[in-house]
Amino acid sequence: MPVQFVYWNQDFTKDVPVNTNNTSAWKSRFDTAIQAGWMDRMERGLLRYRLDDLQTRILPGPCGFVAQLNIKRGLERRKPQEILSIQQDFNAELFHFNKVNPDEIIFEMIKESEEGHEIGRQSCKTIVLVNVSPLEFGHCLFVPDPARCFPQILTRFAVEVGIESVLLSSDPSFRVGFNSLGAFASVNHLHLHGYYLKYKLRIETIPVRPLIPDKGFYTLGGFPAGFLFYTESKGVKDVASAICHVTDFLVEANVAHNLFMTRGAPPCEDDDDKLLRKGVRIAVWPRVACFGTKEESALNVALCELAGHLPFKNKKAYELTTESRVIEIIQRYLLPHEDFLQLEKQLTHHLMTL
More exposed terminus of the chain, fewer Cβ within 10 Å: N or C? Predict the structure, then answer.
């Protein structure tokens, strides 16, 4: 029986101060549980390799890309599954998260309201387990209701869990992300990634253009082209619902996509607010689909790369890459500009009619 991590709305950290290290001076109960559990599994040898401090450099240029060298992940991670469709069915014969070693489970997340289990979520639970091939410190996987064997298609509950996990953390360096099928998801069993990255990312403060502000829906004002949602603790359910309407639309249209959730500044023009981290920014990037077995090139463009975090598996590529080269690579995976603008119109109309 896994350890249970029970939480309430009052456990959300309402405001996270930003310092030069992009870390917090104190740990929330959530951070303590994740980090202690992750370190314990690493010390017990449950990870495929020991992750020490990664060699890191900030690429010169306005994008502020954070490049990291992680050779072991490229050599020792599990072979990705062959993905042939964004709507591919779950296959119990392949690897899925009900097959993991139970010792890899850090805890089971359960949300309660004042009256007990939250209304509408009585049957929903989330297993949090270590990623045995970690990208960064604390790299874990959130698997919503694993026994129901959902394919890698977002549900509202999964989005809520992702946003609430960021709110439960007192550390601005805690990030959560999702890769759809066709967007470099490695396993077709619903899951999100969570990990700590202590370096600031441009996505935390990048300017946005409003689309439907009442629903927290914006478009990113810079590279790479995508959409942005923003919510503080009281708006999680409504914004999670809006996000799922967008991702459901993308799935129906067979458009691959990546999501990235992080503490971030409110979507406004006030420079003073750029230092605030009261809420969560959720970036959604529609992109060109990639099918077949996941290619192991020097730089695979998925949730991390689109957010500005570049894990390299090759030392030469890590040392020689430039911002312009990274932009060139990422651009190949983005929708053509006209297609993105058309999708923006369709999604805006879709959300306004709900």
Answer: N
Q: What is the DSSP string of 132-170?
A: SS-SSTT-EEEEESGGG---S---HHHHHHHHHHHHH-S
Whether residue 350 lies in the annotated active site: no
Q: In this model, does residue 274 exceed pLDDT 80?
A: no
Integer Cα distance of 249 and 227 in angstroms:
14
Measured N-to-C along each axis, helices 156-168 and 236-252 cross at an angle, to the nearest 10 degrees, of 140
**What CA–CA distances, in Å, run from 189 to 81, 95, 178, 194?**
11, 9, 12, 16
Q: Mean pLDDT for the chain?
A: 92
Six-digit token pair at 249? 């639309």
- Residue 164's identity, in one-letter code, is E
Strands 55-58 and 66-69: antiparallel
Q: At 32, which helix (H) or strand (E)?
A: helix 29-43
pLDDT in tens, 318-335: 999 999 999 999 999 999
Structure tokens at 90: 């779950």
Find out whether 230 and 281 touch, Cβ atoms under 8 Å: yes
Catalytic, out of 189, 191, 193, 257: 191
pTM of the predicted protein model? 0.95
